[in-house]
């Protein structure tokens, strides 16, 4: 009788030889790496600067900087040598530009955005916005009421705090209103500029930032929210909503936007401002919402506003809010923009037809003046 253990051993050996033979007939296949996407749902884009009808630079969290030159069909990621967030970016011409962000970061490019060098800003506070009316003159605003200015293209900076000076007898009471965050700045030339920020702060200058004047006074009587029993009437203008974005198309006509979905506008360079009303849909008459009255449901805050092509204007905000200025002066939700649940940080147009909207995991592009928008996949 044959040995069962011996027979079983030969069977196992035969199977092993067959398996090795089969394996030897197949060459190793290398799996290609997954393609890295330039745009993901985790991205947070804070600003966009169009450099041409089809080209733009887009900055965001973790030092992410993208360049497109074909209307958002393809993007190139540019290394800035830092993972600090980019909050603002602007090109002053085809070659020269600046960006700002976390920890006092200011960078400059002299080759169209291909490479960036960090400048000595002399501060570590967050810088949320910048404005350069020309290649040499620039302004940055940020936390702790900081305003930085340069007159030589970033070689040196002058630092100041833009806040109200309180008399000694009220300084202790004014502590909650000191050093407000400044979120937006816009200059139309090297003399005329505006700054907006926390607690309804509105500032204007007509001499390049040598002196500034507060401009929110005209809004106080329009704001009908009653003071609480513990509120001090001396700080009434600090009850105004915070403003995040500001944009002027010339020395007289400007707009700003902020909390509670309010847009304000001026036609005299900021001497007087008025709250602008919304409409329930395009073409409808303006609502009768009283500024400062309770909102049910609450309106989304607005982060950016831009005027373009004469009397056109758009604003963007939380949960995909996009408002467009109507011919009757009201602001209405724009049905041409895809419905999104994400914050939209910035809207900018290069000309009457070509514009961009960026936000959380989102880049949108239009080439027909905003009649339609295309998602850019990267």
DSSP summary, beta strand count? 29
The secondary-structure class comes to mainly beta
CA gyration radius, whole angstroms: 27 Å
Q: In percent, how much strand structure appears in the residues? A: 25-35%
Give the overall pLDDT as a whole number: 93
Count of helical regions? 2
Query: CA-to-CA gap between the ends?
Result: 73 Å
Low-confidence stretches: 17-25
Assign a percent range to the helix content.
under 10%
Taking the sheet with the most strands, its summary is: 5 strands, mixed
Note the overall shape.
globular
Strand order in the largest sheet: 21-25-24-23-22
Report on the structure:
The chain is mainly beta and 378 residues long. It contains two helices and 29 strands. The protein has helices spanning 4-24, 217-220; strands at 45-50, 56-60, 65-68, 76-77, 86-91, 97-101, 106-109, 117-118, 127-131, 138-142, 146-150, 158-161, 182-187, 193-197, 201-205, 213-214, 243-248, 254-258, 263-266, 274-276, 278-279, 302-308, 312-317, 322-325, 331-333, 344-349, 355-359, 362-366, 374-375. Strands 21-25-24-23-22 form a five-stranded mixed β-sheet, with no helix packed on it. Mean pLDDT is 93; it is low at 17-25.
């Amino acid at each position: 009788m044959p040995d069962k253990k011996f027979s079983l051993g030969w069977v196992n050996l035969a199977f092993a030889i067959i398996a090795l033979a089969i394996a030897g007939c197949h060459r190793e296949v290398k799996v290609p790496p997954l393609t890295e996407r330039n745009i993901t749902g985790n991205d947070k884009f804070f600003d966009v600067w169009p450099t041409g009808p089809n080209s733009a630079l887009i900055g965001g969290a973790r030092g992410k900087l993208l360049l497109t030159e074909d209307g958002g069909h393809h993007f190139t990621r540019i290394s800035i040598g830092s993972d600090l967030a980019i909050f603002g970016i602007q090109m002053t011409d085809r070659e020269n530009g600046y960006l700002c962000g976390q920890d006092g970061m200011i960078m400059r490019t002299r080759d169209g955005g291909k490479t960036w060098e960090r400048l000595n800003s002399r501060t570590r506070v967050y810088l949320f916005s910048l404005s350069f009316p020309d290649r040499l003159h620039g302004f940055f605003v940020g936390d702790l009421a900081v305003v930085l200015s340069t007159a030589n293209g970033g070689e040196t900076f002058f630092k100041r705090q833009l806040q109200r000076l309180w008399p000694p007898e009220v300084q202790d009471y004014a502590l909650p209103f000191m050093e407000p965050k400044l979120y937006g700045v816009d200059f139309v030339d090297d003399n005329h500029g505006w700054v907006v920020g926390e607690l309804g702060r509105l500032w204007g200058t007509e001499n390049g930032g040598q002196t500034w004047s507060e401009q929110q006074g005209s809004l106080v009587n329009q704001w009908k929210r009653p003071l609480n029993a513990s509120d001090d009437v001396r700080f009434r203008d600090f009850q105004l909503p915070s403003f995040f974005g500001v944009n002027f198309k010339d020395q007289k006509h400007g707009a700003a936007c902020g909390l509670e979905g309010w847009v304000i506008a001026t036609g005299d360079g900021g001497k007087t401002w008025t709250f602008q009303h919304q409409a329930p849909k395009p073409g409808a008459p303006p609502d009768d919402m009283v500024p400062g009255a309770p909102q049910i449901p609450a309106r989304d805050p607005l982060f950016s506003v831009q005027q373009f092509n004469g009397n056109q204007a758009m604003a963007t905000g939380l949960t995909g809010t996009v408002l467009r200025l109507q011919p009757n002066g009201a602001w209405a939700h724009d049905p041409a923009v895809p419905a999104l649940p994400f914050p939209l940080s910035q809207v900018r147009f290069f000309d009457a037809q070509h514009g961009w909207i960026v936000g959380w995991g989102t880049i949108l592009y239009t080439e027909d003046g905003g009649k339609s928008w295309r998602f850019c996949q990267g």
